[in-house]
Specification:
The protein is α/β, with parallel strands linked by helices. It has 8 helices and 8 strands. The protein has a domain of about 180 residues: Rossmann fold (3-Layer(aba) Sandwich).
Length: about 270
């Protein structure tokens, strides 16, 4: 076990749990992005794909990109564990669920290898055909880290933006949301974030850290959207809200060596 507070590494202060983290009987709410991404028309056919572990800020990232002009199409804008919605496309979600199940796994029990069938590839192509004609289409689903191979086969121009979060915060959030034991959550964090690093090593892309303070987060978001030729959103119209980050206070600051190594590597590649 290693101390994550070792020199050169900073642990963000973990916030207390809120009521929004508790279970609700209300179903997720589906919204339709009516905007036709006029700002992103010059990138029509391009796909923006957010990569990141569950409970790590992927909703914040795609929501911020949506504010700047990325078209999402159908997406969930509210659910019991995320008051602003996880912003996931239900068709992408369904495809990933079916794909993982057909390979003998799930989001919390990832298969060693994910093989896309011709049917799965056709479903992905249909999604691309449906949405990329609208402009710069984007989607996020943490499961994408497990299923990237197929998307890279069918998308002509897919661009990644990554996000990560302190492993302690993620583990506590998964325990609160799903009752997942901390040790299992930590192993899952390792698996997803190693996949993120593997993809970055193949071809670097922007990566940000959800542990950063709000101003630093948006400074880096602005750099990303500027590179894409999208609009920078003013402070009063930001997607970020403090209640997007939920986790319990914890005195635990020791992690397995593997988690420390992955977290430090992620910090080293993050934008500043």
């Amino acid at each position: 076990m290693a101390n994550i507070n070792a020199p050169g590494s900073r642990v963000p202060e973990l916030q207390s749990s809120s009521e929004s983290e508790k279970a609700s009987t209300q179903p997720p709410r589906l919204a339709e992005d009516e905007r036709r991404a006029e700002i992103g028309h010059t990138l029509r056919g391009t796909v923006i794909c957010v990569l990141g572990m569950h409970r790590s800020g992927t909703s914040f990232l795609i929501g911020s990109l949506q504010k700047s002009g990325v078209f999402l199409g159908s997406h969930f804008d509210w659910n019991p564990h995320n008051q602003r919605g996880n912003r996931e496309n239900p068709e992408v979600f369904s495809l990933h669920e079916d794909l993982l199940a057909s390979n003998g796994g799930s989001w919390d029990d990832p298969p060693e290898v994910v093989t896309w069938s011709s049917d799965h590839l056709d479903r992905a192509r249909a999604l691309l055909s449906k949405y990329t004609c609208e402009g710069l289409w984007g989607f996020k689903d943490p499961r994408t880290l497990l299923t990237l191979s197929g998307w890279k086969r069918v998308a002509n121009d897919i661009r990644f933006v990554g996000i990560f979060r302190n492993p302690i915060a993620v583990a506590h959030s998964l325990r609160l949301r799903s009752g997942m034991p901390l040790e299992r959550a930590m192993k899952l964090w390792n698996h997803y974030n190693q996949l993120l690093l593997d993809e970055y090593d193949r071809q670097p892309f922007p990566v940000i850290c959800f542990d950063w303070q709000e101003d630093m987060l948006h400074e880096n978001i602005n750099a990303i959207v500027t590179t894409l030729g999208l609009q920078v959103v003013g402070r009063d119209n930001r997607f970020f809200a403090s209640d997007l980050r939920h986790c319990r206070d914890s005195a635990e600051n020791h992690l397995p060596e593997e988690s420390v190594a992955i977290y430090r590597r992620l910090q080293s590649i993050a934008l500043r």
